[in-house]
Amino acid sequence: MSADAPLQDPPRRRFLRQCLGGAAGALVCGTGLAALRGGARRAAFRWQIDPAKCVQCGKCATQCVLPISAVKCVHSMAMCGYCNLCFGYFEGQAPGLNAGGENQMCPTGAIKRRFVEEPYFEYTVDEGLCTGCGLCVKGCTSFGNGSLSLQVRHDLCLDCEECAIARGCPVSAFQRVPATDPYLRKGVESEPG
Fold first, then answer.
1. In whole angstroms, how far apart are CA 29 and each of 23, 24, 32, 102, 184?
2. How many CB atoms lie within 10 A of CB 127?
3. pTM: predicted TM-score of the whole model, two decimal places
4. What band does 52 get if pLDDT is binned at 50, 70 and 90?
């Protein structure tokens, strides 16, 4: 064989190269498809608190990976009685029924009270001030009509696959729900999932 003649791959070596190239391509494609499927699965579900299981332990305010928790108090206006004495707003031993800080259940003043007409008041939640501590929900559930509950706000949530609050929840009140309907409303039966 002369020095100028091109080297020819023997058929067996060519066959092995083609097989290895095909296997590497299949591995790359398979890994990509698995990642896409996993991402689609994660995007299809969100973490949420089941209001029927929540015991307002306070961990939602401290266990979230965000500096201010993505869990917020939400108000079911259909259930609200517009009471003069709201147990989600007032401390149990409040010295007076006025908006003074010493009378309020919420440590950050996130529950706002507005006079409607005698004897009715409207209560709203300022989510910017709410830390998700659950004190107002505990008062409303224990002594009131239960119109307040805690929910993960998905416009704030990072949608961690491994939710730190869910891991720390003492009663397993967190569950995965479809992203198409990511909120579990209080007083509405949720489908088992």
1. 10, 9, 5, 62, 38
2. 15
3. 0.72
4. very high
